[in-house]
Protein 1
Amino acid sequence: MPRKPAYDKNALIDRARDLFWKQGWAGTSLKDLERTLGLNPGSFYAAFGSKDALFQLALDKYAEGGTKRLKDLAAEHGALGALQRYPGLVIDEASKPAKACMLAKTVLELKNQNEPLAARANAHLSSMENLFADLFRDAQAAGNVSDAYDADTLARRYQSDLLGLRVSAERVGVDARAIADEIAERMAELAYHTDD
Amino acid sequence: MPRKPAYDKNALIDRARDLFWKQGWAGTSLKDLERTLGLNPGSFYAAFGSKDALFQLALDKYAEGGTKRLKDLAAEHGALGALQRYPGLVIDEASKPAKACMLAKTVLELKNQNEPLAARANAHLSSMENLFADLFRDAQAAGNVSDAYDADTLARRYQSDLLGLRVSAERVGVDARAIADEIAERMAELAYHTDD
DNA sequence: AGCTTTCTTGAGTGATCGCTCAAGTATATA
DNA sequence: TATATACTTGAGCGATCACTCAAGAAAGCT
């Protein structure tokens, strides 16, 4: 008996994610969302409940996308290959709403104003870091990374390097590509444990 | 004939900087500022003109403070010593409003909503990077860093590493101290140009 | 003391914020 | 075709936003 929604909810979340990613939490008003999603206030609230709730969906979708891209990369190029290519990939694609990581932007913006959302973003960052650690372990098992390193330590540093890269990529006048290449090079050097 | 202001404008800018640093641009309302500065709307606007103008003053003061701290460090411990100590210093001091860099937070938050302020923050980041490069050159002149490296390249990477460190330090459950130590260690390794 | 000049006060501006809800419209079943 | 059940519309809610300004208070000068 009922009537079907005139929109594809999943596609709307994608569009909302891109808008939030580019403009941040406070920088995105409901008017912006209504315009971008083609929804009137009533439909918006019927579909998502609140700005908070939609932001959380967007955050989850963002994280899911990042995880998928990295796993695909590993499936095609192996663990080390993925870790080498990922930095270049995240700052690539001019089509993307922003270079900086949406999760990092969210933690920085909302840590002192919306703890639940900041905590969720932080949790996503942690599971990405766990995925990095898994890949480093895979690379060690494959003999591409020296066993003398601790995979969790490598992952922590890799995550930090990526975050720095992506902040740098957001800046004007910084050659982020060069930084991405340096991070990739370092991955290749991990085969041999040289010092300390 | 006139009456003197009841406040020390310079001290107010310090307090405003700390509030903006912690809460960001949109997260800091005029009510927040009035409360923190102990100023009524009229006095606020007589003193600073606008939220924008005060934020700019805060940004400049923040950058000036960072520059001074690094130069002091270099005067006491030499160029390489300063570069080694700075990462630990910026994530230290529990008294600080935030671990993350206020300039980076500003670029990320305001790039698409307040270009002038974002550009100013970015310019401050660039001059910090120039200062890093100068220190690397000093360290090379002192024989502490191999001449095989390009100082500007080292500075670009150092800046990116610092930004990543400071985003990481803002996260919950990340051992930022360990990352800072790794960055410092890498400085010591620059004395010898090993490969590539 | 008296005058001038500035600073301080705080109620109040229009605009925008996230959000609500009653009324209207479209669709799937019977 | 009639009815039930959503979905859509959009005016408008109270709260808050950055900001203004007229009136009053205080300090430096003569």
Note: Helices of chain B lie at 9-23, 30-37, 41-48, 51-90, 102-110, 115-141, 151-170, 176-189.
Protein 2
Amino acid sequence: MKPDIPAVSERGEPGPNASARGASRERGLDRVVELFAHLHRVGHPVGIGDLARALSAPRSTLYGLVRILTDAGLLESVGPRGEVFFGKSLYFYGMDFLREHDVLGRARAEVDRLARETGETAQLCVLHERKYSVAYMSAGRRPFRISSEIGVQIPLPWTASGRLLLSDLSADEIRAFVPPEDLHPPRGAPMTIGAFIEAVAEARRQGFCITSGLVDPFTHCIAGPIHDRLGRVTATLCFVVAFDTPPERIKALRDTLLTSGHVLSLAPDREPPRSL
Amino acid sequence: MKPDIPAVSERGEPGPNASARGASRERGLDRVVELFAHLHRVGHPVGIGDLARALSAPRSTLYGLVRILTDAGLLESVGPRGEVFFGKSLYFYGMDFLREHDVLGRARAEVDRLARETGETAQLCVLHERKYSVAYMSAGRRPFRISSEIGVQIPLPWTASGRLLLSDLSADEIRAFVPPEDLHPPRGAPMTIGAFIEAVAEARRQGFCITSGLVDPFTHCIAGPIHDRLGRVTATLCFVVAFDTPPERIKALRDTLLTSGHVLSLAPDREPPRSL
DNA sequence: ACAAATTGTCTTATATAATGGACAGATATC
DNA sequence: GATATCTGTCCATTATATAAGACAATTTGT
């Protein structure tokens, strides 16, 4: 590949004069955090050399860290080239997370049911790392070329669910929360933060949100909220439907969504009072 | 506080000779690995103080590490007391693992189908950390008080699946792999390693395995293998059925399992040749 | 066939992360 | 209400993990 790559402008804070000699040392755990984030972005196994380049970390350091992580089952080594990817332990930890949040588990089942019974693509969405994130998805019957696999992250202003997920934030909080660059939709003119804040407010008033052709020009996105016991929006259910879906069908799907969301909202998140 | 869990006798190695001087310093990442393992064992949120005690780590160190991990979404803080547990990022990484191993995903769906169509409790089991581990489970219709939640780990010799999962190891490898203390079943006389090796060999010959009352005195365990393209056993499907299940029903369930396992074994684990 | 790039392992130095302890504010316990 | 036990933050010290480079064994490209 590229033999050199000047480490694109020394990410992080190199310190104004740190250039003197050796780049600053980084904590192993911080590198691991970045490593995980990178694997998640890339979405497939990565060689250690490539990892070192991508994280601008010394190879010798990465070999050590990867050894520890693979021994722990947090990473696994695949292929003859020794590429690494998320390991079995992370699967189990993810299942632990799911068990602790049983709303999520029930919502996943509901997404499957919605997709099966309506034939449309249904999703469960949550807020993660200041982005709209697909927590679960069940493909509909139509052959859709959807970009919405589980784990995909999309700027909040591009989505209907994003408006609902920010319902509980004040205008100032939204301003501080949404990265400015996220206001530019993939195609079309950028949106002002003020307009987006107003859109969030309207989504809250209505209790649902429908957008057209925002992330994909040929789809509508229909979203409804799931609340926790305190009434805050913790997740959304949504349908992604073809652009030519008739209005009354969209209304019907919306109502289906609202019903499902309401049912999911009722059940307590876990054993109510924490007995002990 | 919680006098629960006998702490499994000080796992890990404190260092072959570390006893000599004051407790040696430990790498942050190593502590995190232990932290994750501990949370998984305990299975519910744990306060930082308790964590420090359980891992015999300094509190000040843990506060630092937990801060980093929660900022990264690997842990999350719940409750007014600030207990921590696995965070959303781990859920997403777990989903990434699942996507990378689509056999697992298909096997999960199959377990659901088996449980639905037979009414029995079905499981998907894998080898993890030298233990038999429940990777997925779908409860049957009978009201079972099963201890087999997802993530539960059981000594290999206590299970039918354990015998299949070790099919590809030589006698010596098995001897080295199975912790000696795992040979003691929960009730009844301990098994010799030799007897267990023979049981593994027989499971391989038969292509399935049925055990009675091993982990639970009132159940049978019926297990069948899932192979990878090289013929190695990568996972098992199994039914957990009541002790009074008639023999012919058990045979039928076994055949169902073998068929499912065979179908799952056929499909390639991912895109075959890695096009590049 | 050679040359160029890559992988994985080692070794040394030094920047720094882990540590233990002190601390104030909260909670629980008596 | 007094006492004990918690939680969370901050500091100075020092053991050590990170970084950098050299190395042989591969793999890759021409």
Note: The longest strand of chain B covers residues 233-242.
